[in-house]
Amino acid sequence: MATIKPDIQLLDVGGQKLRTAVWRGKGTARPLLFFNGIGANLEMVAPLGEAMGDRSDVIVFDMPGIGGSPAAKMPYRPRTVGKWAMNILDQLGYADVDVMGISWGGGAAQQIARDYPDRVRSLVLLATSAGMVMVPGNISAISRMANPKRYIDPDYMMKNFETLYGDAADQSAVKHKNRIKAPSKQGYAYQLLAMLGWTSIYFLPFLKQPTLIMSGDRDHIVPLANARILKAAIPRSDLKIVKGGGHLFAVSRVHQVVPIIARFLDDHADDYIEGAAYST
Prior knowledge:
The chain is an alpha/beta fold. The chain has helices at about 45-50, 80-90, 105-115, 140-145, 150, 155-160, 160-165, 170-180, 185-195, 225-235, 250, 255-265, and strands spanning about 5-15, 15-25, 30-35, 60, 95-100, 120-125, 210-215, 235-240.
């Protein structure tokens, strides 16, 4: 498959500028809005955007202080991320979308599905949890993940890759390293603060969207048990387990994962979400 280059622009969303990329798909399926993991720039999910190219457009943006987005003036919460996302969709001319999030981005995706059920038609949650109500990961992996050095020092990241992500530091790890841009300290800190005290557990039973939950059984950061919690809490959900997959299975095993995601989204392309409105 030929490499698909994304259209990248800096959009103003109410005073905050966000670097936004769109991988233009050849297909006519509903666009996919993707939320990245903590500290991750949009280039890290390029394999996903390219692999979905025959199906639909894929939209990704860098959080403030991450990748090419300027830092935020003040801390923000998941609901603010949702407002930014809807502003971006409006500027790009997208009405409704499917939403997918990985790790930190999975939390943002859950909040947005709750707040904008009229625009979020299906939900895909990868290697994520219900926030503060979760089964914690391996302490060794968590301590290394909290250290921004994993972005700044390539040797540190490669040395600890398997401990962090559950995948061997093979050629896929090298490619992953080459797509990384170190976040600013403020950007990284604000992303951590955004989810401080946050949980989706109280509203998950009321989500209307069909939801695909995927988890690797070797995820040291967000263990498989968290996917089972999400499956038990979300009414219209399916769980797929990636055997041998670590925290970054969506990137390291993109050709295994994308067909599962695409099939799920296509199966629910015409679903009508009855009563898609919540009081706030």
